[in-house]
Design goal:
The complex is a heterodimer of chains A (about 375) and B (about 325). With about 375 residues, chain A is an alpha/beta fold. Chain A folds into two domains: about 5-340, Rossmann fold, CATH 3.40.50; about 340-374, no CATH class. Chain A is about 45% helix and about 10% strand. In chain A, the strands form two sheets. Chain A has a five-stranded parallel sheet with strand order 1-2-3-7-6, sandwiched between helices. Chain A has a two-stranded antiparallel sheet with strand order 4-5. In chain A, strand 4 (about 210) and strand 5 form a beta hairpin. Chain A is globular and about 70 Å long. In chain B, the strands form three sheets. Chain B has a five-stranded mixed sheet, with helices on both faces. A four-stranded mixed sheet of chain B has the order 4-6-5-10. A three-stranded parallel sheet of chain B has the order 2-1-3. The termini of chain B are far apart. Chain B has about 325 residues and is an alpha/beta fold. Chain B folds into two domains: about 5-175, Thiamin diphosphate (ThDP)-binding fold, Pyr/PP domains (Rossmann fold, 3-Layer(aba) Sandwich), CATH 3.40.50; about 195-325, 3-Layer(aba) Sandwich (Rossmann fold), CATH 3.40.50. In chain B, helix 1 packs parallel to helix 7. The chains are: A alpha/beta (about 375), B alpha/beta (about 325). Chains A and B meet through helix 14 of A and helix 11 and helix 12 of B. The complex binds thiamine diphosphate.
Amino acid sequence: MIQEPHATLRDSDPDVGLFTVLREDGSADPATDPKIPTPRLVLAYRHMRRLRQLDARMILLQRQGRVGFYGACTGQEAVPIATGLVARPDDWVFPALREQSVMLVRGFPLRQFVAQVFGNSGDVLKGRQMPSHPSGKQVHQVSWSSCIGPQIPQAVGAAWAMKQAKNEAVAFGFSGDGATSQPDFHAAMTFAAAFKAPVVIVCQNNHWSISVPTARQTASRTIAVKGRAYGIPSVRVDGNDLLAMHAVLERAADRARRGEGPTFVEALTYRIGAHSTSDDPTRYRTDAEVESWKKKDPVDRLARHLRKIGAIDDASEKQLDDELGAEIAEVIKAVEELPPPPRLSLFDDVYAEPTWNLREQRELLAAIPPAPSH
Amino acid sequence: MNLVQAINDALKLEMKRDPRVVVLGEDVGRVGGVFRVTQGLWDEFGDDRVVDTPLSEGGILGTAIGMALYGLVPVPEIQFADFIFPGYDQIVSELAKMRWRSGGEYSAKMVVRTPVGGGIRGGLYHSQSPESLFIHVAGLKVVCPANPYDAKGLLLASLRDPDPVLFFEPKRIYRASRGDVPEGDYTVELGKAKIVREAEAAPGKPAVTILAWGAMLYEAVAAAEKALELGVECEIVDLRTLWPVDVETIAASVEKTGRVIVVHEAPKTCGFGAELVALINERCFLSLEAPPVRVAGFDTPFPYTLEMDYLPLAHRILPAIVETARY
Ligand SMILES: Cc1ncc(C[n+]2csc(CCOP(=O)(O)OP(=O)(O)O)c2C)c(N)n1
């Protein structure tokens, strides 16, 4: 059942509904088409293609031993890219593993993003976190920790503070389907509703939590329907449909800005690649399942639409590919050469000012030779 | 066999022997755990005894307590010790106190297995060593094997011990630590340390006791080799069981050498080394020739890129040995 976003946002049927815009032939369903201006769609497409290429390159670097780890979002690009486009500069973003790239859409430099993956001195986070955990205050994005769940109530708290500031800002909080089993999800939904916080809580249901299928997380028919019990308008949306994602997120954000409170969004999607570079998905799922989802690839679907409306063609595709490839290669080259963070930076930022024990330990480290490498 | 295989072997053996044993956790079933420690168990024992759970540590530990109260012997796996904290309340407030608060009527016998420690490029949340946070809680036993033989024997002993056991598996040596493991049943008694290297102090020839466990044991051994070249002998005690710690073996060694170093990955402040040094001061004060020394992780979160600088590796233990010996 396809629904108009207004209707779905009013919680008409999160149990079985699936809000979709793009049809199989690449056309937009006139009943649901949010009529996003073409240049914006082309921009979204560029970001999605860039992200796809970036993920592929980073996985390659990991295989070559040049970076330690990577968590890609291949097959799930529509959600972070739509979020990046919908979010305004003073909105805040609390991602999980698959939404780091929101910050790239909002102007965070690719160089620093890649430096976080290398964890070297070009990294804003001083090489402290694992790859795929970037954050950037300049774009109001807070990194997830690695722990599944804690960022969701944090997004609610930021939204609560925004409400008190009366500044029409919105917080976006993300999770996977697995995270909905954590108490933090329950706390976030409870608080968001009770305090009518201007927050958009998005669950990317990519069907797997490492090897555990969503059916093992919940016996609920959908995740979206859970919002109903919390008293939060909820919508289930085709997460591989950039137009649908954009429409739903924009309306959810508008509701929040108008003081109408939280919205819960289940974005139905699929993790095409491994959970991370530490995972081998062939041990728990079939090729047929992956292939069936590849047919619904979000980048391909947007491309089909853009071709249909004449916004891209073979020549522009080739040019885009070359441009993005060159940009990414150049960034990697520049970043990879940077030295590691200074050893003694370890002791900074534990507290605002190092305490006596940290000052002593810093001296101790300064006096001993560098550690052997791995 | 390596450490992973030895733990797997112990689980398989006990699941065959004792139908009450149930393994549960995230990804422990079909794929056999992210470190493959439970590999093959699901195929052999099925969905009722090897359970992939929803993603909730509080759920895993809370339901495990209920199972245990009703008579099962759950073996919950927490995917990384860093992720035990969403379930910490169930351990601290419930599991640890169950026997005491029920006047001894109820207990929740279980073995919580979880990988600990750094050196695998895991950053803040895949590297921590939270043992002291559990040792501090009355009612829990805490074990950390350093080799496959001990891993199997200690796990079997843990599974048969009447009390709840936190079984910390040093993931840095999961595959690197190899050794002969006997087939079939045997146990390594809880609460007994092992002297893995002996030393004698003699006039003009000081010796140093090193207390270590898990992955850092090997760093202590490496540092001791180097110290020997410098003329200092080390006696190394692998604690194996962190709580109840084998205070007699520790005291006997420190009384012999008069010098002691504790090595652990966890941050120095309030780490288990603090308790060990206090015990030594209480029991061996008059035998001490030098102040006890802690070589530990720094009092910072666990770093990603600089992890080898953070860890108390051999290059940091060696100067401490020399200094303690010369004191
Ligand atoms: C508290 C906690 N428990 C376990 C893990 C290990 N872990 C990392 S990702 C993951 C699955 C996450 O699944 P989901 O929330 O669906 O997000 P996805 O990775 O599929 O996007 C698990 C179990 C963790 N990081 N944190």
